[in-house]
Amino acid sequence: MKKYDLDELFVYETFKIVKVKDRRLGILYRVFQVAILAYILFTIFNDESYLKKEPPIPGAIRITLQAPNTFTNQPYCTGGDLPCVYWGANEIQYPSDGAGFAFFTTRASVTSYPPGTCNFLTASSPNDPCVFNPITNPSNVIVPKSYIGDIESHTVMIEHSIRGKVNSISLRNGVMDGVLKDSNGNTIRRISNATRTLTDPKANGDIFTVKELLDAAGVDLDGPSFAPGAAPGEINRSSGIVIVIAIDYANVKLKVDEIKYTYRPQLINGAEYKATENIYNPDGSYTIKDRHGIRFVFQQIGQIGSFNAVSLLTNLVAALALFKVATTLVELLMLHVLPQKEHYGTFKYEETHDFGDFRKGILSREKENNGEVSAQP
């Protein structure tokens, strides 16, 4: 039966401090330490590790449309495939107030269905003659299919607010600075209290033209529509489009009490949008407004936070563990790369005698035979 030396099997390794007097190793070690320290400081300030962050709780978003003081006769009104009608802002925006979304009409038609011998709302069976059918019921076209003229010059005012769940943050965009960026991340316009008052001294929100938002999303209303339901040759102005605008909130770097936001518009490729407005008139007639247009959907995202000492210390302690990397790199160079690696290894590693032999007295007798004096354990 094979015998095992338990002292060899259960060997204990301990650290030994060896001062290696070699300037090359010392300089490398300090350089690595400085580089790691710079990385730690950069990470803490760049990633704002001193903040306790959380996603913002969405607040109210209100979108208001306003017509320009004077309309411009756009090329698509004079040389397009459809005529143009000029509607007011309240008629273009449907519904007039949406929570987190807005729909602006770019193409519309209006049809009126005169009252019949009975009320359309009182049909009580599938075969009741009072069942309303827009195909078979007689109708009068009030507005044929038409584009909404000069929709690009209308202005949009966006108001939004957020609050924190754990943090005591509660802000509206009127007290924050913002940026409008295009779909490629390029800055289109910077927003501050100074720029808001230039546009409208009484403005409570950020004001853009419809064209600015379309350009930021990279949309051409007169470009071809790629929606599955679009007719051959139909353009975006006719089929309608969907644009998602993410409002990305973040802390201003090195200013823990200030929050900023960024508008990031993005077109949803292949998505069209239409809405049908049904109006039952007091005289018993029925009016249907068929609308196609731009649907803006707003989403509030990001991370906001406030200073927290525990978060700072937690991230700092975790980062300080990187200093071990400096030691590891220098020792790899010392033991495996530099020409004197064998000499370094001699000082680095030391193996003791087998203390099992000490206990058995074997090592003592060997030393006595060699003329050495040894103390018994």
TrEMBL record:
Keywords: Ion channel, Ion transport, Ligand-gated ion channel, Membrane, Transmembrane, Transmembrane helix, Transport. It comes from the Eukaryota. Belongs to the P2X receptor family. It is found in: Endomembrane system. Its main location: membrane. This is Uncharacterized protein. GO terms for molecular function: channel activity. It comes from Rhizophagus irregularis. GO terms for cellular component: endomembrane system; membrane. GO terms for biological process: calcium ion transmembrane transport; signal transduction. The chain crosses the membrane at residues 27-45. PANTHER family: P2X PURINOCEPTOR (PTHR10125), P2X RECEPTOR E (PTHR10125:SF31). InterPro entries: P2X_receptor. Signal peptide: none annotated.
